[in-house]
Amino acid sequence: MQVPYLVDMANDIGAFFASEPDMETAARGVAAHLRRSWEPRMRREIVEHYAAGGAGLREPARAGVALLAQNS
Q1: pLDDT at position 28
Q2: Residue 72 confidence (pLDDT)
Q3: d(Cα 18, Cα 4) in Å, to the nearest integer?
């Protein structure tokens, strides 16, 4: 899957959780959604992208992917 598409999807998920007043709760929501809904290959690719600098990832998607990376 193309990384720009994964970044866009992660940012869309992050936008959903952005209304959460607590950033940590929002990040956990993003990470949980990625674990639950994305196939392993997609999760691996977005974590690799994050590890390489995560260009284009916005908060709270960036924070959610960071949590995902910690638990991978």
Answers
A1: 97
A2: 72
A3: 20
**CA gap 9, 6 in Å, rounded:** 5
Q: What span, in angstroms and rounded, lies between the C-alpha atoms of 51 and 46?
A: 9
Number of domains in the chain: 1
pLDDT digits (tens, 9 = 90+) for 28-42: 999 999 999 999 999
pTM: 0.95
Show the domain range for 36.
Answer: 3-70
Encoding tokens for residue 28?
Answer: 């956990």
Structural tokens at position 41: 């290959």
DSSP track, 17-42: HTT-SSHHHHHHHHHHHHHHHS-HHH
CB-based contact 1:44 (threshold 8 Å): no
Look at residue 59 in the predicted model and tell me its pLDDT: 97
Q: Residue 3 and residue 11: Cα distance in Å, rounded? A: 12
